[in-house]
Amino acid sequence: MTEIVNGTETGTGGRGGKRPRKGLKMKRVFTTPGVHPYDTVAWERRDVVMTNWRDGSINFEQRGVEFPEFWSVNAANIVTSKYFRGAVGTPQRESSLRQLVDRVVDVYTKTGVENGYFATDEDAEIFDHELKHALVHQIFSFNSPVWFNVGTASPQQVSACFILAVDDQMESILEWYKEEGVIFKGGSGSGINLSRIRSSKELLSSGGTASGPVSFMRGADASAGTIKSGGATRRAAKMVVLDVDHPDIEEFIDTKAREEDKIRALRDAGFDMDLGGKDIVSVQYQNANNSVRVSDEFMRAVENGGDFGLRARLTGEIIEKVDARSLFRRMAQAAWECADPGLQYDDTINDWHTCPETGRITASNPCSEYLHLDNSSCNLASINLLKFLRDDDTFDVDSFVKLTELIITAMDVSITFADFPTEKIGETTRAYRQLGIGYANLGALLMATGHAYDSEGGRAIAAAITSLMTGVSYRRSAELAAIVGPYDGYERNAEPHKRVMRKHASANDDLRTVDAMDKKIHAEATRQWQECLRLGEKNGYRNAQASLLAPTGTIGLMMDCDTTGIEPDLALVKFKKLVGGGSMQIVNQTIPRALRRLGYQEEQVEAIVEYIAEHGHVVDAPGLRAEHYEVFDCAMGERAIAPMGHVRMMAAVQPFLSGAISKTVNLPESATADDIEQVYLEGWKLGLKALAVYRDNCKVGQPLSAAKKTSETASEEAAPEVQVIEVPRPTRRRLPNQRPSITTRFTVGGAKGYMTASSYPDDGLGEVFLKMSKQGSTLAGVMDAFSVAISIGLQYGVPLDTYVQKFVNMRFEPAGMTDDPDVRMAQSVMDYIFRRLALDYLPYEDRAALGIFSAAERAAQARGEDPAALHEVVDTAALAQSAPIEQKRAEVARSEPKHSSSDSLESHQGRTADAPLCMTCGTKMRPAGSCYVCEGCGSTSGCS
Q: Where does the record place the TSCPD domain (predicted)?
């Protein structure tokens, strides 16, 4: 796609002076000379209206936005609501994807020209057109801060990942709080290693005892929670790391497990301890992910059963010895209880470090994929792998290589114009120019080509693609070094950097291929690494880091990816938004393609897809051979991928990444601490840099599973003399996304309010939401909680008349006159609300028994007439048009939409998915790397 030629452009390249330089000679791949990439796209106007499914309120509305026809409704909604800049309803508001892409890419192109990246203006135009084509066609995406900030009046922050540093001084600790707060305020996350802070077992210079790092974690946690509450709807994203030889390591390991015990006690006492609950804020350490930085020395002591020394921070002397296996078990037990701490393998991380002469790698970003120097940052971009799968099921290697070149060039340009939250981070990032290219849709690519995620063939493809991506990235980095110079810290780190390049190339040579697809990819990767080593020896490298695998939460939805990052598919049945509102469940589009690839005929494909649509899995699907089941294994569901399957996939790609991998290894609820020990031990042996686990239902703040444990069933069978009585449990009947509703504005004693009551399409009240005008935050929270409680009760079958009996005639202020002719006086807001609901939804006979009448009914009584005569009996069966009532209701039940893929999975599994609800729109989120992403609005739980 490019070659280096002598150019006449001049530029500083960030190096401090103008001199003639070479430039990139660009070649077109996706575009045509004389034709703007936008002109090849069919565009259409759409209305974006996003609602909160819990109460039907409108979260966001912008009409007449412009997107390509092939963009899904969901992708367009997320980009419009999250990335378009300008106040809604003003001329300054962006209203087209063209404006968004132009705003960003024009800055990249202009900066590239000014800094001598291109040989001629024509090459700059080719760069501009190629980049715009790739973004509009969802072939790749920059990380969210780029879309938020570039080309706006805001600081041009392009990085999503930050690493901070703290020393054993109070001034440094307070500075840490401040820097972290600035990063959180901007919507990003950071990580830090607290191991320099002396332990609570050491003395201060004054003679007193030190507080220890865990004590200072409390202040940082409170700060993170406060900034999150004041400025954003998502939780702050942060990582806290402590070295395994720190004397306070046992306290650090237990922090979140102890808090989980506190959560259980408070929950049992009646406090609201769900994720996002009003009482969860009283619990400490909930805003951070915790990781222990373990050494090879410690892991060998675990293997051999030896002692391990804990060292004083100031002198380095051993002040205590502990049993390594007991300490390791303590980590596994804590992770079993609350999913923290994760592990980071220190010696492996630093063995692959390109800049050890500058300093060690001590910490990571919140999701553990960015690992580099303290006080540094990394900007990310991810490739949509499925875009390179041709119709003949071959991988387009040439286009993948050329796109990777393009992305690395653009990402390096961005560091030249970027702003940073602190001066220290800015200095380090400009000096080392860390990049984080990665990919999404790996799981979908493997399934579409008939490869099981947990298979040698699947891992071979993933490894070959990752090797090719990183090899091309560093080869392009070496080419850029010839044009605009190597990174400032390269000279002092030249030898270790080149050593790491040779390690990557050697790992590529050791890669075992399985079939034609990965053989072709691997052959090109080998060529790229050879050229990378040759050019790097000659020119050096422009970037200290090139690649990692991020969660790709929001940008994965922007690119219409079926799977995020390195993850497998979540489930076989997905949730799709429809034009004009509403949604439907669909079987993943990669499944028919996979079945055809495996040799099934069209009739068989249709039958299998229909079976999956009904059951959510492939077990016993008609005509599907058992040996093909594994191709359709997912992260959750009937055939969930085994925990070690995730670890093996991570190990396959880790040698080809500069950084690490954002991924959580999920374990079933039945897993033991021994299982977690084994995962942590294998992660070290297989050469991973970082590893986190999550055991299903280990957190109180998550929804609980409704499935019975096998062990409980077995013990019941073992005791036949005990009669087990199955008590029928109520089943929640959720409302569809589109439901009839009545909104009532009311006044009680001068206090104004609104009530929205929604009902099922066939019959019955199912949801009530209340809002009082000018209320304080406490009353607002109480009314919200009350509304949710009533709505859930209605959906579980609590009769409305039961609520009416309990709340009618309840007395408290405000009370008095209302503006409702049917309810002229109310003894409280509750009294009015349930009288109004009774009038709207209860039959006359039931209301009469409660003494609740409308104005017309009271007038009839005054005239001596029977109010019942006002209510004619309607033959509902006579209203049926083309189908009997029973048939219509059955259709409604079958087509009742779910709110996300997690909800869809729940309906097939018969159990609750372990995922939080989105704080923005109420939709159940789904895993994305080591965090969660909302399919409804694109919000994430901390990862950009």
A: 736-840
Q: Which of 115, 287, 290, 365 is catalytic?
A: 365
Q: In 41-120, which ranges are E strands?
A: 43-51, 58-68
- Residues 276 and 272: their CA atoms lie apart, in Å, by 9
Contacts of 55 (CB under 8 A, 6+ apart): 756, 767, 769, 787, 922
Q: How many CB atoms are closer than 10 A to CB 601?
A: 11
Contact 682, 655 (CB under 8 A): no
Q: Is 369 a catalytic residue?
A: yes
Query: Which one of the listed residues 125, 130, 337, 369 is annotated catalytic?
Result: 369
Domain ranges of the chain: 2-158+363-554, 165-351, 570-640, 741-864
- Quick check: 442 and 384 in contact, CB under 8 A? no
Residue of 161, 338, 355, 367 marked active site: 367
**DSSP per-residue codes, 392-416:** TS-B-HHHHHHHHHHHHHHHHHHHH
Terminal C-alpha separation, the chain: 30
Give pLDDT tens digits for 132-143: 999 999 999 999
Indicate the pTM of the whole model. 0.79
561 is catalytic: no
The amino acid sitting at 895 is S
Q: In whole angstroms, what is the distance from residue 203 CA to residue 511 CA?
A: 52
- Please tell me the predicted confidence (pLDDT) of residue 428: 98
Q: How confident is the model at residue 15 (pLDDT cuts 50, 70, 90)?
A: very low
Q: Sign of the C-alpha dihedral, residues 236, 665, 462, 447?
A: negative
Q: Which pLDDT score is estimated for 228?
A: 56
The pLDDT of residue 775 = 59
Cα–Cα nearest to 395, from 468, 324, 315: 468
pLDDT tens for 18-47 read 444 579 999 999 999 999 999 999 999 999
Given a cut of 60, whether residue 896 has pLDDT beyond it is no
Q: How many helices (H) and strands (E) does the chain have?
A: 29, 25
pLDDT band of 745, cuts 50, 70, 90: confident
Q: Which residues contact 287 (CB under 8 A, 6 or more apart)?
A: 221, 224, 225, 228, 235, 236, 238
Residue type present at position 519: K
The class (CATH top level) of 165-351 is alpha beta
* pLDDT at site 774: 61
59 a catalytic residue = no
**Amino acid (1-letter code) at residue 861:** Q
456-484 vs 397-417: helix crossing angle, rounded to 10: 50
Split at pLDDT 50, 70, 90, the class of 813 is: confident
From 113-117, 367-371, 867-871, the region with the lowest mean pLDDT: 867-871
Phi and psi (nearest 5°) for 668?
-70, 165
